Amino acid sequence: MNYVTVEIIDTVGLNPRERKMLQNTVLNFVAMSNALILKEDVVLNPLEQGNENIGVVLVYAKPLNDEQSEAITQALSKRFTTYFKMSELNLEAHISVH
C-alpha cells in the first residue's frame, strides 16, 4: 500500500471557480494531514485524466503499514466531513489506500 486516492464527488454541480477553490482546499488538507500525521515524503499527483471528480493521488516512497493507512484515512475523512458540513456543501469524499 503505497498510494492514497482522495476523490470529491461533485453532486451539486459546482461551477469552474468553485471546483478550482475546492481543488486547492483538497491539496491543502492532504498536505497538512500528511505532514501532521505521517510525516512521510509524498508526491501529490492529479487524478487520472478524464476523471471528472476533484481530488489528488498521494504516492509514498515506501509502503504504508496498516496503522498509517488507517490514520491518514480517518484524518482525511474527518477533515472533509467537517469542512463540508460547515460549508453547507452536500459533497462527499472517498479516500482509498492502495
Descriptive overview:
There is one protein chain. The protein has helices at 16-38, 66-86; strands at 3-9, 42-46, 54-60, 92-97. Strand 2 (42-46) and strand 3 (54-60) form a beta hairpin. It has 2 helices and 4 strands, in the order E-H-E-E-H-E. The relative contact order is 0.30. The chain is an alpha+beta fold. It is globular and about 35 Å long. Strands 2-3-1-4 form a 4-stranded antiparallel beta sheet, covered by helices on one side. Helix 1 (16-38) runs antiparallel to helix 2. The mean pLDDT is 93.
Summarize the amount of helix as a percent range.
Answer: 40-55%
Radius of gyration: 13 Å
Beta-strand residue percentage: 25-35%
Kindly state the mean pLDDT as a whole number? 93
Class per helix and strand makeup: alpha+beta
Distinct helical segment count: 2
Q: How do the strands of the widest beta sheet line up side by side?
A: 2-3-1-4
Amino- and carboxy-terminal Cα gap: 5 Å
Main sheet, how many strands, which sense, barrel? 4 strands, antiparallel
List segments where confidence is low: pLDDT < 50 over at least 5 consecutive residues: none
Strand and helix order: EHEEHE
Number of strands: 4
The outline comes out as globular
